[in-house]
Amino acid sequence: MDERFANAAGASVETVFREERGRLLASLVRRFGDLDLAEEVASEAIESALANWPADGVPAKPGAWLMTTARRKAVDRLRRDKTYAARLAVLQVEADRGAPAPPAEGGLPDERLQLFFTCAHPAIAAEDHAALTLRCLAGLTTPEVARAFLVPPATMAKRIVRAKTKIRDARIPFRVPGADELPERLPGVLQVVYSIFTEGYAASSGTELQRLDLAEEAIRLARILHRLLPGEREVAGLLALMLLIHARRAARTGPDGALVLLADQDRDRWDHAMIEEGSALVLVALTGGPPGLYGVQAAIAALHDEAAELASTDWPQIVALYEVLFALDPSPVVALNRAAAVAMRDGPAAGLALLDELAGEPRLRGYHPYPAARAELLRRLGRFAEAAAAYREAIALAGTEPERAHLRRGLDASETPRPDA
What we know:
With about 425 residues, the protein is mainly α. It has a domain at about 5-95. It is built from 19 helices and no strands. It has helices at about 5-30, 35-55, 60-80, 85-95, 110-120, 125-135, 140-150, 155-170, 180-200, 210-230, 235-245, 270-285, 295-305, 315-330, 330-345, 350-355, 370-380, 385-395, 400-415. α6 (about 125-135) packs across α9. The radius of gyration is 24 Å and the shape is globular. It starts with a helix and ends in a 6-residue tail after the last helix. InterPro entries: DUF6596, RNA_pol_sigma70_r2, RNA_pol_sigma70_r4_t2, RNA_pol_sigma_r2, RNA_pol_sigma_r3/r4-like. This is RNA polymerase subunit sigma-24.
């Protein structure tokens, strides 16, 4: 076998699996009602693709090939298990006919969203169902999911196992919830969609700063939710937030993939049509009742996008919005972002004082933006030795090479400061 062809086929499998994994699992779970089985046969289908595609070529419809292979493997497994005999009789008829899965109740047009809502069942703890959905349906690795929730990977792995066990032991059905159940489950679904976007906006590991495929998939899912639930202001807020942030994607890295800070970005490269769409949705999100988490964050993002340059940004208004956001979500990450905004409004000493109040916060351990923010403010204050130590801490924690390279530049500037710095 030609090694180059084998490598190309392997890359094709990886690309297809990344694009199709959520759809594949969602379809398998809906058909067989067993998440563990769906994961296992999906993995076996990928192994088959790696074995067959280098010799036979990548099929014209690779997603359909994977689905057919996985479904056959699932049927074979069920056939060997007598406890599934009754279910297999029905499934085999559907498989022989090539019948598609029955249409979802409630009109959700994407099987992944259907399963997102299923995993958001109230019997499953919020932290557990979010972990399960991100790992199994969004395709994030356990460390990536752990990063999203600021917990160790081992803790996250336990949450995922616990959620699966709850679904199995409580016999929670894999079905679309009724209209009366959707509002209760919606916050969990929004959290998962936003976590997918966050991993796309700032990858937790690798050589690239952004994973645009994940960010765009999250936006696509949010658009579906907005069409289905146009009266839900937080859905509008989430979509607005992601659009306003994603609008800067082209300017966030240089030609060599290096990180470009907001202050240095070429704002002409921002997607202004996306900004306009997002800004209109902000008005929807903030009209008709108390503001929600996503609506407030979207308003902050809109203020950044509307400014012609960093110096003209309305920092007093951004700080005020962070106060509102902190009242809704008094988390250390919100406090960190608020401190950074205060530093822009009142100077680095004021921001650093707020950051120092967060020292020892367990949820910020291992979260590199915290030491990175301290390093920047310490450097601006001329406290170069302390800044260098903070930069080293942030470099050790940063997950992607563009982030590490940016922090190394800050470290170099702290170790060899200019006389006028």
